[in-house]
Amino acid sequence: MYSIFNFNHIILNVILSKIHNRLEDTENFK
């Protein structure tokens, strides 16, 4: 149970970092 939660937490961090990088890229395009 805890390992599954840990795995989901890692996936969330990766997704958030990808979104953050994408937002920074769009800021650079302006």
TrEMBL record:
Top-level taxon of the source organism: Bacteria
Protein name: Uncharacterized protein
